[in-house]
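The aim of this short unit is practical: by the end, you should be able to scan a pair of folded records and say something sensible about each. We start with the first protein, listed as its amino acid sequence and then its structure tokens.
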Amino acid sequence: MKGAKSEQSASLGGVTYSDKVTARLHYIDVPVLARVNAGGLFFELGPQVGFLVAANRKEEISGGIGAGTYNDDVKSDLKSVDFGYAAGLGYQLSNGPGIGLRYNGGFSDTNKESGSSAVRNSAFQLYVSFMFGGK
């Protein structure tokens, strides 16, 4: 899951207005990574493609006439495929367990609206793994 949060507030005429937006983007990412092993330590790098399966936006507004919580499905506002890259490092024991940290970055603008600001995905992943059968 990828996402973003923003918060802003302002005071006008003695009334404080605030707006909190949370976006959650659900992708199935398919990385194709080259991996270099150095003992138990490894480094990985390569391209990936992400397929958007769901996208939701929650906005909480306080103060003023439009106060309330609004939930929207924003999947139709985004491109369904995201091309990018992944790079990471980690440690893998020969008898099974491992841990890794990976950065995923997007090359493509995921926003469908032309003329709008470019939106690119960016995420860090911390993961645990288990290798069956040893190295």
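Turning to the second protein, read its sequence before its tokens, just as you did above.
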Amino acid sequence: MMQNMQRHCFSNVIATEDEGISDEYKPLVFERFKRIGNSDIEGSGLGLAIVKKIADLHNGEVGVEDNPEANGSVFWVTVKKA
């Protein structure tokens, strides 16, 4: 996890080293009750949807992309400073 405070915003980045998320599923990971991949992992599919809602309420952004340094994904959230 990496945090970055820039002049006008705060960013938080989390990188995973797993099988990653295919491009076709990336738009779905921030929707409520969506679960991608291993169904053996517990969860309701709400976590990233909550992150997106909080970011939206603060005029922020969230995203996911491929991890350029390993297999897996990079999730990020950026919100403007008050």
